[in-house]
């Protein structure tokens, strides 16, 4: 454990932050102001090679943000009236760079259409290298009839490596009126590999 002090203009020293650079697990909500942690405190899990920074040290409700995650979204656009089919969007590739990392972790998929489907729901699927990421098909982003937005349930496949291909399928488009002008966001983060 390391404590940081800052010298102020009067020549006095004041302990400002407590850090933990030798932890074997991640921090919890009880690693808080009563334990000396506060906004700006760092926590390093040397067993799992992960780093966190405290953003709120409230007693029994501390919030720590993992620093080796770079939040990101990937947007896929399918213009016009939707039709059922595979590979309905331009194929995306996982990229990343030295600072963001090259492993993308998918947390959820958000879908939106300008024209709502009627008569039946609109269902999208996301594929990694041609195979669905939703082993539980009911977790696919499903826009209800007359609705315009949906957020998926948890995907079964969550990690993508550099150059993995990402495609979007339209599995169902409505029955009376097909949905139109779709935007599909893959939300997650790049895992820093530095």
Order of helices and strands: EEEEEEEEEEEEEEE
* Poorly predicted ranges: 1-15
N- to C-terminal distance:
23 Å
> What's the shape?
elongated
Number of helices: 0
Which CATH top level class of the largest domain fits? Mainly Beta
CATH topology of the largest domain: Jelly Rolls
Residue share in helices?
A: under 10%
Strand content: over 45%
Radius of gyration: 22 Å
Main β-sheet, spatial strand arrangement: 1-2-3-4-5
What is the residue-averaged pLDDT?
85
Biggest pleated sheet = 5 strands, mixed
General description of the model:
This protein is elongated. A hairpin with a 6-residue loop joins β4 and β5. It folds into 2 domains: 2-66, no CATH class; 69-191, Jelly Rolls, CATH 2.60.120. It contains no helices and 15 strands. The strands form 3 sheets. A 5-stranded mixed β-sheet has the order 1-2-3-4-5, with no helix packed on it. Strands 6, 8, 12, 13 and 15 form a 5-stranded antiparallel β-sheet that branches. Strands 7, 9, 10, 11 and 14 form a 5-stranded antiparallel β-sheet that branches. 0% of the residues lie in helices and 50% in strands. It has strands at residues 2-7, 13-23, 42-45, 50-56, 63-66, 69-81, 92-93, 103-115, 122-128, 131-132, 142-143, 149-151, 159-160, 165-173, 180-191. The two termini are 23 Å apart. The protein is an all-beta fold.
């Amino acid at each position: 454990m390391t404590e940081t002090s800052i010298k102020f203009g009067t020549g006095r020293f004041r302990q400002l932050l407590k850090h933990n650079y030798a932890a074997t697990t991640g921090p919890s909500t009880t690693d808080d102001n009563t334990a000396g942690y506060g906004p700006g405190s760092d926590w390093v899990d040397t067993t799992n090679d992960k780093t966190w920074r405290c953003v709120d040290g409230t007693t029994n409700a501390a919030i720590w943000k993992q620093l080796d995650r770079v939040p990101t979204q990937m947007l896929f656009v399918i213009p016009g009236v939707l039709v059922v089919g595979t590979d309905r969007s331009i194929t995306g590739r996982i990229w990343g760079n030295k600072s963001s990392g090259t492993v993308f972790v998918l947390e959820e998929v958000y879908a939106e259409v300008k024209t709502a489907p009627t008569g039946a729901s609109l269902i999208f699927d996301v594929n990694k290298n041609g195979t669905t990421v939703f082993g539980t098909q009911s977790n696919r982003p499903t826009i209800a009839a007359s609705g315009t937005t949906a957020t998926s349930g948890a995907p079964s496949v969550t990690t993508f490596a550099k150059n993995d291909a990402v495609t979007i399928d339209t599995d169902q488009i409505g029955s009376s009126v097909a949905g139109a002008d779709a935007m599909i966001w893959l939300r997650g983060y790049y895992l820093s590999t530095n």
